[in-house]
């Protein structure tokens, strides 16, 4: 099926010194027919407590996936930008208001505790093939 060329999955390892560390998170990637002129649609499959990721839909609020997209971005570099967002959330554009409010109130203990609890409940332990932090596969592979 030629549609499979446009549907990918990625597994991102949670960055060090974050509540996501040592666990991996699955993303779904839909490559549009206009890629690389327009961004891929990427969302989290794994539930995650993060201010810039919608809890139910997995939508990611990241400027390069919207208005700041450039054909220079590859799928891998985009995934690495998502890892950076996991490490340094943008408090000014929350999709998860509860997570955003905790960070804006400087309640880092509350945020970290909830994010770690969600990580333990929904993410998986780091598989051995994620040594560099990103694994991307087409549905054909």
Automatic annotation (TrEMBL):
Source organism superkingdom: Eukaryota
Protein name: UBC core domain-containing protein
Domain named UBC core: residues: 1-124
Keywords of the record: ATP-binding, Nucleotide-binding, Transferase, Ubl conjugation pathway
Signal peptide: none
Organism from which the protein derives: Hirondellea gigas
GO molecular function: ATP binding; transferase activity
SMART domains from the UniProt entry: UBCc
Active site: 61 (glycyl thioester intermediate)
Entry similarity comment: Belongs to the ubiquitin-conjugating enzyme family.
Entry annotated with the keyword Nucleotide-binding: yes
Spans through the membrane: none
